[in-house]
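hiii so my PI (J.) wants the whole complex modelled not just the main chain, which honestly fair. so below is everything: two entries, each one labled with what it is. i double checked the lines twice but i was tired so who knows lol
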Amino acid sequence: MAAVQWRSRGRSYDAELQRCRTEAAAIEFGDYHPLKPIMVTDTKTRRGARKGSTSSTSSSSSSAPSDPLSSMLDGTDPLSMFAAASATDTPAMSHSSSTGDIGKKRREKEEEAVGPDFEPWSSKRGDILARFTTTEKLSINLFMGSDKGKAPSPGSSAVSEKVRTRLEELDDLEEGSQRELLNLSQQDYANRIEELNQSLKEAWASDQKVKALKIVIQCSKLLSDTSVIQFYPSKFVLITDILDTFGRLVYDRIFTMCSDPQPLPDGFTVEDVNDTAKETCLNWFFKIASIRELLPRLYVEAAILKCNRFLNKSGIQETLPRLTAMIRGIGDPLVAAYARAYLCRVGMEVAPHLKDSLNQNFFDLLGTFRQISGESVRNQLLLQRVEVPEYLTLYSPAINWILQCIAYRAPEPLLMEMMERCKTMANNALLLNSVMRAFRPEFVAARATDFIGMIKDCDESGFPKHLLFGSLGRSLACADPPESERLTILNEAWKVITKVRSPQDYINCAEIWVEFTCRHFTKREVNTVLADIIKHMTPDRAFEDAYPQLQSVIRKILTYFHDFSVLFSMERFLPFLDMFQKDSVRVEVCKSIMEVFIKQQVELTRDPVILNAMLHICKTMHDSVNALTLEDEKRSLSLLIIGFIRMVSFGRDFEQQLSFCVEARATFCNLEPVLVQLIHTVNQLAMETRRVMRGSHSRKTAAFVRACAAYSFITIPSLSSIFSRLSLYLLSGQVALANQCLSQADAFFKAAVSILPEVPRSISVEGKLRSSEAFLLDFINNFLATLLVVPDHPEHGVLYLVRGLLNMVQDYTWEDNSDAKVRVYVSALPLLAAMSQEAYLYSIPKVDSNETLYGGDPKFLSEINKLCETLIGQILDHLKVLGRDEQQCARRQGALAFSLFGVLLAHGDLRNNKLSQLAINLWNLSHKHGYCETRVSVRTLEYTKHLAQQPDMSHLSDTIQRLALQSRT
Amino acid sequence: MSVTLDIRLKRANKVYHEGESVAGVIVLGCKEALQHHGICLSMEGLVNLQLSSKSVGVFEAFYNSVKPIQLISSNIEVAKAGKIPAGKTEIPFEFPLHTKGNKVLYETYHGVFVNVQYTLRCDLKRSLLAKDLSRNCEFIVHCQPQKAKVVPTPVNFTITPDTLQNIRERSLLPKFLIRGHLDATNCVISQPLTGEVIVENSDAPIKSIELQLVRVETCGCAEGYARDATEIQNIQIAEGDVCQGLSIPIYMVFPRLFTCPTLETTNFKVEFEVNIVIVLHDDHLITENFPLKLCRV
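here's the output for the full assembly
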C-alpha cells in the first residue's frame, strides 16, 4: 500500500458534548440498579406466627446481605432456639396443653443444665498442664492381670461362658505382666498415658471390655502415687481424660443397647430401658464395687456415674453423697482434694442440680484441712525437697474447681457462709485464694477491702501472698469495687506487690494489677506502676524472662488508654518499652501499639509528643527489617507505618509537613511501600498548597511546590519496583504540571521515558511470573493522555516527549509474536489527532499547552501529520507481516485492522480520498477471515451512519456504502 | 457346615425362684438344612462338695463318699429325630422349678468347697460322622424371701491395743484407738454392708483399712466335718494416713454368686464373716472379726 496522507478530523469538543447531552436519557433512580444484589431475604420467624411474603422484604434492599453463616444457624441452632424459647415461652406456649408441657419440661431442663457462663473444665486443662511441670523423672507402674484369684470379677460369671473364657484368655495373655516404666520425662509420661487412652479405645472397640476396665483401674491407681508431687495436678488431668473416655464409652454402649426399636429420647426414664441394658449396667456396677483398692474403685465409679440413669431414678442422688463420704478414706490430702475435684466435675456434668454433695465435699475438705500441715505431709515434702508454699499451690486447681462448682449460681448467703468458714480455718490462705478465684468477681470486688485485710493476716510462710493478690487482682479486673475504696485497695495491694522479691513472681502479680490500675485511675498512677515495674525488672536483666507478662502489661494499657498524647506523656512508657530488648518481642510490641494507634486515633495529629514517640516506635519496627525478613512481615510493617504517616498532619504548616516527610524518608528507607506513601503524601501536599492558593502560587508557595517536586524526584529512583517508579513519575509530573512547575514536570516525564527500556518482560505478581505487557500498555496509554497538555520544551524540537516515547517504544524489546508495539502506535494516533485541534479537549489552568504555544501553526500541524503517517506506515507494515502467516495471525491481523479502522473513523478526516480508501481497505481486511464479531461490525456501521447524519460529516455516507457486511457462511 | 446352638433365657438376669418356670428358647442356626437324631434339654441343680486339701488326709477314706447332692433334675425331648430347615430356628421351652419330696432349692452359690449350681443343658444328637452338639447354660436360683422380719442387730466396736488377743508382744504395739460400728450384722444380701470407722488416734500412721469378706464353708457327714474360711473379697476403705477423728464409711456390696443367704443343712454349711483389717505403717496388722448372717427379703 502506498504511503498515506494523514489529515486529522477537526473536532469541536463543545459541540460534541452538547450533542451528547441532549441525547442523554434521564436516569431513573428507581428500584432497579444493576449493581444492587438481587436478594430474597428469607425472614423465617421461628414460631411461624408471621409468614410475611418474602417479596416484600426482598424489595427493601437496604437490608444487609444475608450472611450464609448466620442463616445457617438461623433456626437450626439448638442453643439460640432454646434461648428464644425460654425468652418468649409463656405467651407462645399457652396455646395448647401439650406445648405447655414441653415448655415446662424445657424450663426444668434449663434449671438443671449448666449454662455457658460456667467455665468448663476443658478450659482449665491446658493451664494446669502448662503450669504444673517437672523435670524430675517419672515412673508408671502398671500391673495388668493383678488380683488374680482374689477377686475374679464376680459379676462377670453370671454373664456367660463366653465372657469367662475371654477373661481367662486375658489373664493368660497378660499374666503378671507387670510393667514398670522408669525414668520417663514429663513428655514421655504424657505420651504413655495417651497410648493407654488409645489402647483403651482399641480394647473397647475389639470387645475386650475386661481389658478396658483393667486399663482404667490401673490408670486411676497411678493417682495414688504422689512421688514427684509437683507433677500431680498434671497427672490428674491426663488420667481423668482416660476416665472420661471410659465413662463415655460405657454410657454410649448401654445407651445404644436400649435404642433397638428407636433411640432413647434425651430425657428418658428408667422405664424406657430394657432388661438387657439394665443387666449390663448392673454388671458394671457390681464389677466396680469389687475393685480392691479404694482410689480406683472411687474414680471408676465416678466415671460411670451417669449410667445410674439406666437403673433407677434416684441412683445419682444416692451415689454422690456415698462417693463423697468414701473420699474421707483417702489419707493423702492432695490425692483426696483432687478426688473431690473429680467428683464435683462429674457431678456438675451429670446432675448440676445436686448442690448438696458439692457443699459436703467442701466441708469435708475443710474438715481434713489440718492434715495439710500434718506430719505425714511434712515428711513427704522433706523427702521430695519441696517447699511448703509450692506444695500449697498444688492444691489450687482442685480447690478452685470445687469452689467454682459451688459458687455457680449460688445464692449470696451461701457464699458468705463459705467465706466465713474459710476465715475460721488456720492457715487459710490457700482457701482464700480459691475463694477469690472461684467466686463471682462482683462478690469479691464488693468485699475487696475485707479480702485485703484477710490476706494481710495470713501466715507469711504458707501460701505465697503474691498469688493471693494475683487472684484478687484478677477478680478486680472484671468487677469494680466501690469507688471510694479503689485507691486504698490499689495502695494496699501495691504495697505488698512491690515487696515481692522474685522478679518472676513480682511480674506475674503486677501484670494482673495493671488492669485494675488502668481501669480506674489516670496516667499518673499507671506511670507510677510502670516505674515500679521497671525498677523491679531491670536488675540482672530480669525482664528477659518476663516478656510475655510485660507484653500483656502493654496490651492492657493499650486497651484502656486510647488517647496517645496521654499515653506518651507518661514518662515511664518509653523506658518501659526499652525493656523489650529481644528483637522479635520488641517488634511485636511496637506492632501492637501501632495497631491500636491506627484503630483508635481518629483525628490527624501534630502533637510532637505523639510524633516523636511514634517515630521512635516505627523506627524500631523499620530497623528490624533485614535480608531475612519475610515479604509478608515487611508488608504488614509497611502498612502499620503507612497508617501512622497518614495520621500525621501539620494543618496549614506545609513546610513542617514536608520536613516531616524528609525525616520519615530518612528513617524508613528500607520499606518501599512507605516511600511510595511518602511520595503520595508530598504530592498531596503540593496539591493542597495549590488548593489553598486557589491555583495561583505566590513566590513562596511556588518555591515550596518545587521543593515538593524535588522531594519526589529524588525519592522515586530509590524504589526498586519499576512500575511504582513509572506511575509515580507520571503522577508527580502531573502534580508538577498542575502547579506550574514546567521544568520539573518535564524532568519527571523525561525520567519516565528514559526508564521505559528497563521494564522487564515479565514481573512477579503475587508470587507468579506474569507478562508485564498489559501493565506497560496501560501505563503508556495513561502517559499519552497526559502528554496532550504538556507544552513542548522551548529548547527541544516539536513534540519532543511524544517522539521520545515513541522511540523508546520502538526500541523496546517487545515479546515475540506480540502486537503491543503496534497497539501503542494505534493509540498514539488519537493523541496526535487531538493535538492538532485548535482547542484542546482539556488543559491545565495557568499552563499553556501546545495549542497556545503554536496557535495552530501549519508547520506544527504538518509535523504532526508526518508523524501520523509514519505511524500508520509502521502499522500497515506490521499488518502485512501478519498477513503472511495465515492461520495464526489472521485473527490478530483482523483485530488490529479493525482498531485502526476505528481510529481512522473517529479521528481521521475521511474527506480525504486516500484516507477513506484506506479505511475501507482496513474494514475489508478485518472482515477477510471472518474473525470479526458481527455484532460489533453492525454496531460500528450503525454508528457510522449516525455520524454521517451530522453536519459536515455527510461525506461519510459514500464510505458507508462501500463498507460491506460479511455474512457468516 | 457350621451349626450354632444356643440357649437363651427369657429373663435377662437369669434369676428364678422356686415355683416359677424357667422359660426360654433354644436357638439353632445353620446355613443349610440339618439332619439330626433328636434334641433334648435337661435341667439340673447340684450341690458339689469338695474337701480341702488340708482335710484330705483325714478324710481320705471317705473321699468318695462326698457325692454331689442333686436338688432338681428333669429332662425333655425338644425335638424328635428329623431335619431342621436352614436358617435360624427357635424352639421355645419351659421348665417348672418344682422340687420332689421335701428337698429345698438352695440359692445359687459359687464357693471353694461348696458349689450350688443350676444348669440347663441342650444336646443335639447327630449321625456317627458328625459330632454331637451340646450347650450349657447356667441359670440362677434365688431362694424364697425370708418371712420373718430381719432384725439388723447393729454392733459397735472399739479397738485398742488392750482389746486385742493373739499378739506376741503387747509392749511393742503403738498406741491407737479406733472406734466404729456396723449398721447390721444380720444383713440383707441385696443391700450393702454399711457402717463407719473412726480413727480417734494412732501413734503410728495408718497404711490402709480394709474390709475382708470371708466365707466359712463346712462340709461334713456322720464321720466328721471340715471347716474352712477363705477370702471372697477384700475392699480397701481407707488408704494412707487418714484424718483422725473423721468417720470413714464402711460400705461393701455383697458380690453376686459368691454370696448367698447363710445356709445350714445336714451335709454342709455356708456362713459369712467380715474382718475389719487395719494395717499400720510399721506393718502391724490388726483384725477385728464379725460374723454375719445373710438373708434375702
